[in-house]
Structure formats: structure tokens, C-alpha cells
């Protein structure tokens, strides 16, 4: 790949969401990794190339940006089946975790290899738009994160992965833009892919955007079409700890092992038989567990809303976004109806809420890419 390809990647706690090129390819992978050996056992290895690569991501990652280099991982769905699977923990900084980079590199490599799977070594160049929680950006951690990505070539080697076994992808970044997550949510709310205003009702309103993630919550305060950096806040409070508590209580009470937090989310949000699991073949309610734990978390999230609204009394509406907002929507609505009755909004289209960050990064990095290319063309003509 000689030409730089656009990539917009949201490394969320639950999953990575990515948009590539001319928005011609999307990718979603559970944010789970597990350390592994080079020769993972595969039943029916001769059928390996008939399977979906996303179900068997098995890679070795070489990068100076990693604290632990040249490590072999199972990634995504394959990792959820491992006893040693790891997910990001409460209190960890996304910008400083190897797991964030491993997921980022794996996602990019999966895009690069689709078009060039007949080559044994692929050189891929990307113009990347991604983001970090507001708290980390305010602490200046975006600078180091960006520089680690830009400073070297990062290699992903596919090991026992369907269709891609033995292929190495060398990833290089032409440019990296790291956006604060709350600002990105605002961009996605009011602008289209060309950054034209599509929501004039919102553009000049004073609004809050409460983005509830797995490990953190960001509240962006929007005034005069800009994020108020001084009033925007990030909190170490997400849904991950509560999902883990539900998972543990289901294991203790019902003897049912769930592979990952994603399984818990599915139980809570599925359209049919919500809050039910199968125990020894019988449909069993876990409403008592999920309601108690999630209502407790919703109260903490509502307290955040109340405190920030009091400090920004002329706010007109607060939008709840992110995967956590989907999980807590019913509880937050119930609390708001019985307590303060703020003007709050949710996205009924769950995909829109979950993909909001990735879509926003795509709009921002595409705009940068277009402007940068125009400038280069102008300079070439002037020469």
C-alpha cells in the first residue's frame, strides 16, 4: 500500500469499532486478548482456510511501542474461550495499556490483509483517527500515545489464523490524530461525513454529552459550538466493574460460567428473554441480580449528571451515549422520572450509540485527509 489509507478506530472497553477507506469497510472485534503459544491446537486444520478469520485471530505482535514485545496473542472471539483472557480493568489508562495497542494493530492488520492476502509481507500505511477518554487527554497522555504510534513500524504476524496464516503486516502511520471522546460525540451529533451541519436545532444549544464507557465516563459541556475544556470532566466510573459483578454472582448463584463481559451485556440487552439465562437446560431469570447491580450504577451516573447540571444551570439537554448508556437506559429514565426530571436524550438506534465515536473519528480524520491532500496538490502546482 503506497497510498495512505484512512482508518478511524474506537478502542472501546467492550469492543473495537473501526471504519476504513471511503467508509467501505467496518470491523468490530471484542476487546479481549489472551497470551498464547505459537502452535495453537486446531481441530480439522485442513479446514482452517474455510473459517472466518475474525473467529480465529492468532497473532504475534512486534512493536517498540509495547512494554512486552514479540508476544503471541489470541484476540477477540478466540480469546474469550481462553482461561487466561484479559479485559481492561477499572482504573487503567487506555493510553498506557499494551492491550489497547495490540487491539489497534490487530484491527489495522485485518484491514490491510484483506486486499493483499496473496503477499507474504504487506506494507500498510495509515492516516489514523482515534481517541482517548477526556481525563487522559486533559492529563496530556494523548501526546505520548500519538508519538509511540508515529515513531516506528509495528508488525503483526498472523499465525494459526484462517485464510491469513503466515502473513506479516508492517504498519506505518502517515499521521495520527487523537481526539477527546466527548468532543467527538458532539461532532457526530451535529455534522455529516463532510462536516456539514445536519442538526441545526442542536448547534447553538447548551448541551451535555455523558458518554458512559466500560472503564470511564466523560461529560462534555458544549457551549457556543465548542467543548468547554475547563468544565468538561472525566470520571473513573464505567460499566465494566458492574458487568464483572453480575458475571461473578451468576457463577456463584447458578453455577453458570460466562466467557466475558460481552456475554453479560447480551443477557441484559437482548430483545427476547432479556435478563434470562439457561441453567441445566432450564430458562432462568437473573433479573434480581442485574436490577440490583445496574440500578446502583445508574444512581452513581445520575449523581454525576445532577452535579454537572447544577454547575451548568443553563444546559438545555443532556445526551447519554456509548455502550454503557444502552445498558443503563431504562434505569436512568426511571430515576429521572421519579427525581429531577431533566431533559435527557438517548439514541434509540443502539448501533448509532455504540458506533458514535468511530463514526466521529471517521468524519474528523477524513476532513483532515482531504484538506491535507488539497494543500499538497496546491504546493505541487506552485512548484
UniProtKB/TrEMBL annotation:
The UniProt record lists the Actin-like protein N-terminal domain at 8-183
Describe the location of the Alp7A-like C-terminal domain by residue ranges: 207-345
- The name of this protein is Actin
Task: Tell me what organism the protein belongs to.
Answer: Bacillus carboniphilus
